[in-house]
């Protein structure tokens, strides 16, 4: 038996990098099922596994270690079956632009809330700083201040000109990182700047998914250093999977709201109309930003209309 990391899933076989550095093509033995998850794929990129090598130099995956987190995509809106896109993420880089295209704080906050639910730490990467006007740069500084204070590290970069890319690369060392963000914010440009040797690959993948042929997604991790740092490329995946939560749970996924909610009069407070709400008081006193509170209410409203699941 050997231990290793799944770095590629082709649908019919898995590529495992063993802890002694070997690359082994692996298959799954028999009826491999995981407790709790109804998934179309029992093993995903990022999984730590034990493999049993056979004489042809390939191996069977015998065991999978418990995951610290994973991201899924539901096979369809109605289906309970889901596809695990990647497991054991150390972090997610959410690439955003103040303009060209505009990324709204509602989008950012919804993304951050689902990342909290999935227990994946997020850094915000503000791209295209070379293009902004004075006013846009001013707004950018405000956002960076806001999110840094809440506890999300922020980077200012220009993927096009290379500004700040070295610093970002430093933050990828030894970690498994997923890149997300709206279409057009510069993810491919950034990944190309980080992994120059992967140029062609990224081009192929986007050409492929632009044709709308991505009915099944097979993920791959690309090494970024010698110390098990990887970037996960997931064609067509923009956010985390959907999840169900109660009204009073939404606030748990906004770090600063959660902190203040300890002092609400009712422990199932939804921070809307309840008397003695410490969160509303904190918004009034500017300890919680209006934009974050608006995003919070926006999720609650969509939940009421049954739209939240569909939004991701
Ligand atoms: N001015 C400026 N333009 C950039 C920068 N980064 C990317 N762009 C441009 O933004 C456009 C979109 O970049 P992509 O890298 O294709 O964006 P993407 O996020 O991969 O988009 P999808 O593939 O649709 O998800 C391209 O025209 C890039 O040249 C930047 O730092 N500054
Ligand atoms: Zn409250």
UniProtKB/TrEMBL annotation:
UniProt-listed InterPro entries: G_CP_dom, NA-bd_OB-fold, P-loop_NTPase, Ribosome_biogen_GTPase_RsgA, RsgA_GTPase_dom, RsgA_N
Its biological purpose: One of several proteins that assist in the late maturation steps of the functional core of the 30S ribosomal subunit. Helps release RbfA from mature subunits. May play a role in the assembly of ribosomal proteins into the subunit. Circularly permuted GTPase that catalyzes slow GTP hydrolysis, GTPase activity is stimulated by the 30S ribosomal subunit.
GO biological process, one term: ribosomal small subunit biogenesis
Record note on quaternary structure: Monomer. Associates with 30S ribosomal subunit, binds 16S rRNA.
List of residues binding Zn(2+): 264, 269, 271, 277
Pfam families, per database record: RsgA_GTPase (PF03193), RsgA_N (PF16745)
Ranges of residues in domain EngC GTPase: 87-238
Cofactor(s) this protein cannot do without: Zn(2+)
Gene Ontology CC, one term: cytoplasm
Signal peptide positions on this chain: none
Gene3D superfamilies named in the record: Nucleic acid-binding proteins, P-loop containing nucleotide triphosphate hydrolases, Probable gtpase engc, domain 3
The protein's enzyme class: hydrolase
UniProt: GTP binding residues: 127-130, 181-189
UniProt KW keywords: Cytoplasm, GTP-binding, Hydrolase, Metal-binding, Nucleotide-binding, Ribosome biogenesis, RNA-binding, rRNA-binding, Zinc
Subcellular location: Cytoplasm
The family this protein is said to belong to: Belongs to the TRAFAC class YlqF/YawG GTPase family. RsgA subfamily.
The species this protein was found in: Phocaeicola coprophilus DSM 18228 = JCM 13818
Statement: the UniProt record of this protein carries the keyword Ribonucleoprotein: no
Annotated EC: 3.6.1.-
Record GO terms (molecular function): GTP binding; GTPase activity; metal ion binding; rRNA binding
Boundaries of every CP-type G domain copy: 78-240
UniProt KW RNA-binding keyword: yes
Cofactor remark: Binds 1 zinc ion per subunit.
Superkingdom of origin: Bacteria
Protein name, as recorded: Small ribosomal subunit biogenesis GTPase RsgA
């Amino acid at each position: 038996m050997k231990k290793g990391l799944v770095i590629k899933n082709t649908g019919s076989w898995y590529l495992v990098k063993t802890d002694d550095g070997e690359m082994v093509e692996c298959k799954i033995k028999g009826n491999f099922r995981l407790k709790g998850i109804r998934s179309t794929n029992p093993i995903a990129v990022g999984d730590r596994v034990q493999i049993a090598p056979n004489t042809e130099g390939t191996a069977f995956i015998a065991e999978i270690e418990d995951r610290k987190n994973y991201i899924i995509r539901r096979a369809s809106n109605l289906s309970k079956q889901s596809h695990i896109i990647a497991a054991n993420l150390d972090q997610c880089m959410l690439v955003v632009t103040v303009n060209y295209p505009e990324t709204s704080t509602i989008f950012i906050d919804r993304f951050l809330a689902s990342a909290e639910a999935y227990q994946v730490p997020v850094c915000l990467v503000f791209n295209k700083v070379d293009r902004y006007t004075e006013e846009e740069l001013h707004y950018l500084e405000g956002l960076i201040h806001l999110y840094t204070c809440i506890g999300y590290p922020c980077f200012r970069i220009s993927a096009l000109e290379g500004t700040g890319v070295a610093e970002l690369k430093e933050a990828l060392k030894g970690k498994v990182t997923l890149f997300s963000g709206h279409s057009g914010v510069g993810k491919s440009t950034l990944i190309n700047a980080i992994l120059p040797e992967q140029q062609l690959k990224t081009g192929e993948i986007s050409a492929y998914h632009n044709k709308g042929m991505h009915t099944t997604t097979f993920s791959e991790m690309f090494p970024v250093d010698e110390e098990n740092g990887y970037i996960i490329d997931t064609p067509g995946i923009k956010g985390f999977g959907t999840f169900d939560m109660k009204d009073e749970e939404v606030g748990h996924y906004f770090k600063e709201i959660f902190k203040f909610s300890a002092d609400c009069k009712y422990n199932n407070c939804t921070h809307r109309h309840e008397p003695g709400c410490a969160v509303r008081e904190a918004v009034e006193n500017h300890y919680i930003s209006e934009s974050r509170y608006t995003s919070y209410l926006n999720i609650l409203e969509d939940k009421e209309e049954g739209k939240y699941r569909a939004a991701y």
